[in-house]
Design goal:
The complex is a heterodimer. Chain A is about 25% helix and about 40% strand. Chain A is of the alpha+beta class. Chain B is about 80% helix and about 0% strand. The chains are: A alpha+beta, B mainly alpha.
């Protein structure tokens, strides 16, 4: 039997919205659930309820055999007894303690020698050896983030909770740390729940996703399923991308990557992509449609497909295509009328290589 | 200079400060962290000595510790002595009179501590009490020091409450400020000036040390 964190609860704020959430997260090995939504959707509140920093008015949270919360029976386990690690958005490092003291802070019940060894191990793990005597103020944002991660992981929690772990960093460091975090969690076989409003972060870090809007769960499931097939227009709007499919980089040559997606191969720009698993993201407005069979053009990708559905969105028409994988295209009403596009028609979809965005999945 | 009065005053101020730290820190922590709606009532009561004339406060304390009050009777049963016009009675009055001077800086210092640090400590498995000791107190010591200095200085300088509750008994309740008043009444200006200058110098040095320390912390 696999151990799971199973949560279903409601948190009310006086004069504010009701936040309700349902989620499951395996806790017996590496896997990441992303809580995704716009700001104000209640995703941080959900994370705080999981940590025991907020007490929901109704519902239950079970972690394996242990009851963390049972509002009806008055059971509420404080954060100290949940065995979690929590990474705060602005890190919340203790300013009066050194890096080593910060990391050792949660290590209770260990001998002095064991504590010291654990601190050294954690510093190595986050590649900060040599900085143990510094104070948080003397570190860069990226270094602070890694100290916070080491501090949260040092007591070997059974579950790591991360609140917007990369949002306070600039773009370059964010790209490096995103991959580093997933590698680290995988190496430690650490299950995690992560809050983010960043699509790339969700795609590159998450296995499962829970989409929240206005305090409610709109959709949950595997990341690609939710991003690629949003249940309704509201979820589609929140996830903000039209086509997201799992793919595999077959080879990279001269800055171009060949990617297998569904039954077809696509050519995409490959700035720094290595062979392996990726998420293939295509915006609907970047897809050009031609009626009938393919004719030569400068677009690298010419896909034969069939129109599955059409839906009208103001001056635009959104089309779902089957062309080896599900692809969404957005054209104007005039274009649809000129081409007389109907459900079931055979079309050719043209996508330029720079319009295909690859997100690595470590 | 009246060294008996000086020694008595310093003893009174030190004891008052010690009691205020013991009582004031927990109350201030509660004031800084509680979400209870009726909290303003407690805050108002704590701040009362700031606005009440010392004679009003002194009068009610005198009544409250008098031989006909429950407190006064309990004290008499336990010790066989009376509280009014005693050092112990004066100590109770000083604690109440200086309460806001300790609790308000303490509470402000606690409220200024980033609450996420406290939550981070809890999530690392450290109990609430240990979190106060390891995180909250080290980060708010400048405010705690300010509260202690203000309580001490305020007790040294109190006059109205001392007269009402303690009277003017040398070696028992006669503090420096009352001694100065006596000298002036006796037209003994030179002696009054010596004692007054001593108080002025002491207060100035204590405040310099306090602000100097706080400044050094801010720079770090």
């Amino acid at each position: 039997m696999t151990s799971e964190l199973v949560a279903s609860f409601e948190k009310r704020f006086p004069g504010g919205p009701v936040i309700s959430a349902q989620l499951r997260q395996p806790i017996d090995g590496f896997s990441v659930t992303v809580l995704f939504g716009p700001s104000g959707s209640g995703k941080t509140t959900v994370l705080r309820c999981l940590a025991g920093l907020e007490r929901p008015e109704a519902g239950t949270i079970h972690c394996g055999d242990v009851t963390w919360l049972d509002a009806a029976r008055g059971i509420f386990l404080p954060p100290q007894r949940r065995g979690i690690g929590y990474l705060f958005q602005e890190y919340a490092l203790f300013p009066h303690l050194s890096v080593a003291q910060n990391i050792a802070y949660g290590l209770t019940g260990l001998s002095e020698a064991e504590r010291r060894r654990r601190v050294v191990d954690m510093l190595d793990l986050v590649q900060l050896a040599g900085l143990e005597a510094r104070h948080p103020k003397q570190l860069s944002g990226g270094q602070q983030q890694r100290v916070a991660l080491a501090r949260a992981l040092a007591p070997r929690p059974q579950l790591l909770l991360l609140d917007e772990p990369l949002s306070a960093l600039d773009a370059t460091i964010r790209d490096q740390l995103r991959q580093a975090i997933r590698r680290l969690l995988r190496a430690l076989d650490m299950p995690a729940v992560l809050v983010t409003h960043d699509r790339v972060e969700a795609l590159s870090l998450g296995d499962a996703i829970v989409v929240l809007d206005q305090g409610k769960v709109c959709q949950s499931g595997p990341v690609h399923e939710v991003f690629g097939r949003p249940r309704d227009a509201a979820v589609a709007h929140i996830v903000g991308v039209d086509t997201v499919e799992p793919g595999k980089v077959l080879h990279v040559a001269e800055g171009l990557a060949t990617v297998a997606v569904g039954g077809v191969e696509l050519v995409a720009l490959a700035p720094d992509i290595e062979d392996g698993a990726v998420s293939v993201c295509i915006r609907a407005e970047d897809v050009i449609l031609e009626k009938g069979a393919a004719t030569p053009s400068s677009a690298r990708n010419r896909l034969a497909g069939q129109i599955r559905t059409l839906s009208f969105e103001g001056p635009m028409v959104r089309l779902s295509l089957a062309c080896g994988f599900p692809l969404t295209a957005l054209v104007t009403r005039q274009a649809r009328e000129e081409l007389a596009l109907q459900e079931g028609d055979q079309v050719t979809a043209l996508i330029k290589a720079p319009s295909i965005h690859l997100v690595p999945r470590g | 200079m009246d060294w008996t009065a000086v020694w008595l005053t310093l003893r009174l101020a030190a004891l008052t400060t010690a009691i205020l730290v013991a009582l004031g820190l927990p109350l201030a922590y509660w004031l800084a962290t509680s979400a209870w709606r009726g909290k303003f009532l407690v805050e108002a009561v704590v701040a009362l000595p700031l606005v009440l004339p010392p004679t009003v406060l002194g009068f009610y304390i005198l009544v409250a510790i008098g031989p006909h009050s429950p407190l006064g009777q309990l004290y008499e049963t336990l010790t066989g002595r009376l509280l009014p016009f005693s050092f112990q009675g004066l100590l109770i009055a000083s604690v109440l009179y200086s309460f806001p001077f300790a609790v308000r800086p303490f509470a402000a210092a606690f409220a200024a501590v980033d609450w996420r640090l406290v939550e981070a400590s809890w999530c690392l498995g450290v109990s609430r009490v240990r979190t106060v000791v390891r995180i909250v107190l080290p980060l708010s010591w400048a405010g705690i020091l300010t509260g202690m200095v203000l309580s001490f200085a305020h007790t040294v300088g109190e006059f109205g409450v001392v007269l009402m509750v303690g009277g003017n008994i040398p070696g028992v309740t006669r503090t420096v400020s009352v001694a100065i008043y006596d000298e002036v009444q006796a037209l003994n200006y030179a002696a009054a000036n010596t004692t007054a200058l001593f108080l002025l110098g002491l207060s100035f040095v204590v405040l310099c040390v306090t602000y100097g320390l706080q400044h050094r912390v801010a720079v770090l």
